[in-house]
Amino acid sequence: MLDFTKLAKVLALADSPNVGEASAAIESARRILARDGKGFADLASLLIKAQGASALPATAAPPATQHPPGPAATQAESPTDAQRLQSLITRYGSREAVLAPCSREKLLRQAVNRWARHAPPPYERWTVSLDGWTVDSPPRHMPAEIRRAVEAAYSLPTSVTGAIAELEYWERRDGEIALLRPAASRGTERADVSQLDLPALARATVIRRMVEHGLRARTVGDALARVEYWRRRNGRGTWMEAAILEDLRHLASQELASAPPDQGEKPPTHFRTASERREEVIRLLSDEAIAALPDREIARRVGVSPQTVGNLRRRVG
To answer: Helix (H) and strand (E) counts for the chain?
Structure first.
């Protein structure tokens, strides 16, 4: 059950004049809501429900229409697949635009073209195998030449936070395609099979290894990002782990406040045009968790100015 007292204390810190502390508070609130399958968009309805529940006698039975906790309880409050699909098509303009290769996919497809075997028409947009490696092959069996090609297709991240940002991009892209192209349409009943085209899946595999163990954390922010990445995928930790996380968040906020303006990872170079950079900013702003980040952080990830992010934020939202 959602702890409103803890949530209120965390949100109170969001007005802090310290940018790092405010950002950390917003992220903490997002995680508290996410543990109950909720987001900031659900906050108003949750508060109304909580206020109504507090007016009931302590011994009152729950309404007959109340759903048990779990997926059934959130289904009515969360967007359905049909609603998410319609929102996705509206954002891109058409189904074809959603499935079309993005700027990163185009670079990856070009890099591995010599080894690629494509599906027959009209599905030639999809890659069946890369030098014998398929979507069902274990990641460790990826041929060395394919790995080198996707690594060189465009610049690799140089920090843990940068690698996590790219991995989250591919996870979002996977989810977008999955809404239009369910697992059954690929000739498999396995829902856990990635919907990414094979060159993109190869790149995501390389980036995931960088996130998990391939890159050394250079800053407290890197270490914090890696711990929180692990925590999101392995459930809640112990009280000691929670204390370590709080220490890291505190140190990261101090580090961010004292860092010179020009410190940090170089802007990514795989967005070749201004329109591609704007497209990426709009994509990031459509993700609720990332949209909560400051304009400066989103601008750093894409390689644009904070003013551009601010303008696009007002336009989309």
So the answer is: 16, 2
Strands (DSSP E) found in the chain: 116-118, 127-130
Contacts for 88 with CB less than 8 Å, ≥ 6 apart = 98, 176, 179, 180
For the ranges 56-65, 70-79, 189-198, 283-292, the lowest mean pLDDT is seen at 56-65
Query: Distance between CA 23 and CA 298 in Å, rounded?
Result: 12
Q: Rounded to an integer, what distance in angstroms lies between the CA atom of residue 137 and that of residue 194? A: 12
CB 284 within 8 A of CB 290: yes
- Integer Cα distance of 98 and 88 in angstroms: 8
Domain ranges of the chain: 4-58+66-78, 84-253, 271-317
Note whether 218 and 163 are within 8 A (CB).
Answer: no
Say if residue 239 is exposed, middle or buried (CB neighbours under 10 Å; 0-12, 13-18, 19+): exposed
Q: How far apart are CA 195 and CA 105, in angstroms?
A: 13
What percent of the chain shows pLDDT beyond 70? 66
At 170, which helix (H) or strand (E)?
Answer: helix 160-180
Q: How far apart are CA 21 and CA 116, in angstroms?
A: 47
Q: Which of 296, 299, 308, 302 is nearest to 280 (CA)?
A: 302
In sequence order, the 6+-apart residues with CB closer than 8 A to the CB of 76 are 67
Q: How far apart are CA 113 and CA 129, in angstroms?
A: 11
Give residue-wise pLDDT tens across range 305-317. Answer: 888 999 888 887 6
Per the listing, tokens 């996130």 go with 211
Q: Specify the amino acid at residue 8.
A: A
For residue 263, give every residue at least 6 positions away whose Cβ sits within 8 Å of its Cβ, in sequence order, or none.
none
Structure tokens at 105: 């996919």
Q: Is the pLDDT of residue 302 over 90?
A: no
Count of C-beta atoms within a 10 Å radius of residue 114:
10
